[in-house]
Amino acid sequence: MESTGTVFPVSGPGFVSLSRPEYKVLKQLIGSGGDLEAARAALRRGPSVSDADWRSALEVFKHHRSYRGES
Amino acid sequence: MTYGIYFDSRVPAEALRQALHAVYNVPPELVYTGPHDALNEHPGPDPIALITPTGGQFGHEFSAGDRLRELTNATELELAQAICRVARARALLDDGSPAPDYWFLVTTNGNYGRVQTDPDSDELTILYALEPITGEPDLPVVPPPDWSRTW
């Protein structure tokens, strides 16, 4: 719990810890409505996102309602 | 490794780019400054660092990855301290704890300490320091109770 009283999760069932670039990819996938090509295009020149970040984020995104079955 | 640092909006992005060049000799043309959605139209070479606007008091989001690390050999904190000293800026960066609203504030002279940001604000807004920070005499200090200390 933070000093303001805000409670935050650390671990638990269904809880996945993402790095900052993995989260950036996941946000883009959600923002692109599951359009993988559009998401890749948006982050194409981003210097902090790697192929490994895409793989991790996609594994999580598969559980999102916008997932279209692409990989 | 990645860099994710939020610099003081009062300092121009160009000053941050020039500081990166002055300290680490990073070619300015490899540091993109501008909106993130205009990055793909940027005519220059693929950048190794981005400085994009994000709004609020710490409205310059600095992001970079392994290529910058190879050039600078600096940790995220070291790089923030160096840029802050040269550009006379303050910055916020991840303190490494799981608490989403605990950050390191780096001051204009490179000192740093933990701060609490406002969990109800969409922008990064400092509420108070969690420990005394040299160079920030006007920032209220509210030491956290033991049950909320993550360090």
Describe the 3D structure.
The complex is a heterodimer of chains A (71) and B (151). Chain A has 71 residues and is mainly α. Chain A has a domain at 20-61. Helices cover 42% and strands 0% of the residues of chain A. Chain A is built from three helices and no strands. The longest helix of chain A is centred in the middle third of the chain and has 12 residues, at 20-31. The radius of gyration of chain A is 14 Å and the shape is globular. The model of chain A has no long low-confidence stretch (mean pLDDT 86). With 151 residues, chain B is of the alpha+beta class. Chain B has one domain. Chain B has helices at 13-24, 66-72, 76-87; strands spanning 3-7, 31-33, 49-53, 60-64, 91-94, 102-106, 112-117, 126-129. The longest helix of chain B has 12 residues, at 13-24. Chain B is globular. The interface between A and B is medium-sized, with 19 and 34 residues.
